[in-house]
Amino acid sequence: MTVRSLGTLVLSAVCLAAGFLVASAVPSQPEKPVAGADATRPIAGPDTVFVEEMTWMEVRDALKEKKTTVIVPTGGVEQNGPYIATGKHNYILRATTESIARKLGDTLVAPGVAFVPEGGIDPPTGHMKYPGTISLTEDTYARLLTDICSSLRTHGFREVVLIGDSGGNQKGMKVVAAELNKVWAGGKTRVHFIPEYYNHDAVDKWLAGQGIKEVDEGYHDSFNITATLAAIDPVLIRAKQRQAAGKFSINGVDLNPLAKTAEWGKKIIEFRSEATVKAIRKSVGEPRP
Measured between alpha carbons, how far is 238 from 172 in angstroms, rounded to an integer? Predict the structure, then answer.
């Protein structure tokens, strides 16, 4: 290396060091403040009932418009046999909660609780014996629900509605609702656990009356669930692959044509939504001042 090259390197190092010192000496710029809680919303919002799709200003204004009921849906990620995506509960809730909220009119939907108790983790029990399942302990689940409900209460929601699309979710929601109502007694916010949403026996009885006769094949699946998912997205039930393999049926019920099965799914969503709306209205009662 020549003397000239060495001098150039030394000069570069000195300049870099000087620049670092200057940058370090300059105080960092303070973050721009977020608009105040009473700031005017600059644009109109979309037509949605889902809190996660709304801006904070849109949620604030919805509360001012008396949309003070909020649904907290609990789903799950679990094994559902060879044909159904592991997130079936979460996909179904997206459809049913929108229908329920729009029927009620004064209701928003909080982000779904995607992870719930599914069995022991180590050693694995229940659904945890199957890859893809994600489980929580009952304690973690209860704490998560408690914090979600508490957050919604802080921002002014008056009626917090808990519904679950899986059987293992029901106990935790019932316990949390009872505990929070005890702690918040006399306050402005109540929690409502609505077991009527998880009404698969009623759906299956209604379907049987419509001529849908099933024979249990031993899968964690049913025409009720498959048809609902077909209405949401046929990929979730692997429709094309099953048709190609000659396996497009469940519990002895032929799922062809797909369009007809999807129409059944829409009817099932409507059936469950109507039953849940009726139960919510009964639990909430007359609007409170």
Answer: 32
